[in-house]
Amino acid sequence: LSASAGAARVGGGGGVGGSGGIASPEAQLLQRSLELTGELQSFRAHVEMLMMMDGKRLPLSIDMTKAASGRMRLVMDMDSLAPGMRMEMVIADDEMFANLPGVGWMRMDASAMSGILGQAGPGIGDPMGLFDGLFPNGALPADLYNVQSLGKEEVDGVPTEHLVILMDFGRIVKEMSKSSMGQLSQLMSLSGGSGNGGLDSMGINEIEVWIDEDGYNRRSVMNIALNANSSIMFDMRMFGFNDDISVDLPASYTDIPLN
To answer: What is the pTM of this model?
Structure first.
């Protein structure tokens, strides 16, 4: 989805109010959704990710569960790497438990997570963080974001407002936190880019979101152009907001030293 295509179908006007201006209803809805996401104690999500690397399709499916305790469970189906390949992970504070195919449950320091998940696809461990990182100050200045409505739609049977967000990605990158920059740099490494300098060839000009009547983000679709031949598409559906969710640790496991 390109920024120009999005602008063509939604027309002009309706953007975010600048400093001292009045934000559009669409921008206010998005702002409220970002705030609610930041306040979430627990949720469930399903992510479909499609990486296109020099013409090769690498699909990945992820189910996420986050409990109010902070524990998170990830189940990843990675048929593109090997038929029937599936990995399950539990993240609890500074520890990570991974159920590796043919090995069983292993416990290691959570700092190892980025290396393991990065082999399958950066952003997996925190796709919502990758999304939120594109709004670095929690604000939506008019010169960086243009929020438009594409109408009413249902997501998994829930009525929502479908929004498209056109953005000035080059300028937003300069405002990003080190954590968000690190995730984007990991993405660039997949296409052979190196470090933050490779971000010059990256493009995220448009994001689509579906926000329900309570202000929760039910679906987010984001296409990331890494370069002329490589891209990544995230399609995340969220539900179970603030439900009573528990994430249990594995009953038995093998310890793996960080080194």
So the answer is: 0.77
